Amino acid sequence: MASGLLTGAMTRERAARLPADDWRGRNPDFTEPNLSQQSGAGRALASGGNRHNRSVGEVAIAWTLGNPAVTGAIVGARNAQQAEGVMRAGELRLTDKEVAEIETFAAEAAA
Q1: What is the pTM of this model?
Q2: What would the pLDDT profile of 89-108 be if each residue is shown by its tens digit?
Q3: Which of 15, 45, 9 is nearest to 30 (CA)?
């Protein structure tokens, strides 16, 4: 989940408190203005999660698996709840409008 960028777990405040030895503190994705741009994709994923009563991670996985160029995804989980979400993500079908919204924010974040 992009080390917290897509899930909303990585806020400006959390990024500012990263320990000196945390690799994210030296990664441009975790500093402004990139951090705010990345959060747009996270908001689009969260919006889809709210509509489907799913987690941001489930929507991100469903979005990835919905891409016709993708034949599979390797996804990790830190606990049983996350593992269950990973399994359920394969059942989630996003609308064309939801996919377009996520892709718009993802393209803006990559620019």
Answers
A1: 0.74
A2: 889 999 999 888 888 877 77
A3: 15
Q: Cα–Cα distance between 61 and 92 in angstroms, integer?
A: 9
Per-residue pLDDT at 110: 65
d(CA 22, CA 52) in angstroms, rounded, equals 34
The Cα-based distances of 59 to 13, 14, 17, 101 in angstroms read: 25, 23, 28, 12
Q: What residues in the chain have per-residue pLDDT under 50?
A: none
Q: How many angstroms separate the CA atoms of 16 and 30, rounded?
A: 9
Whether the ω angle into residue 19 lies within 30 degrees of 0, i.e. cis, is no
Inter-residue contact 83 to 77 (CB < 8 Å): yes
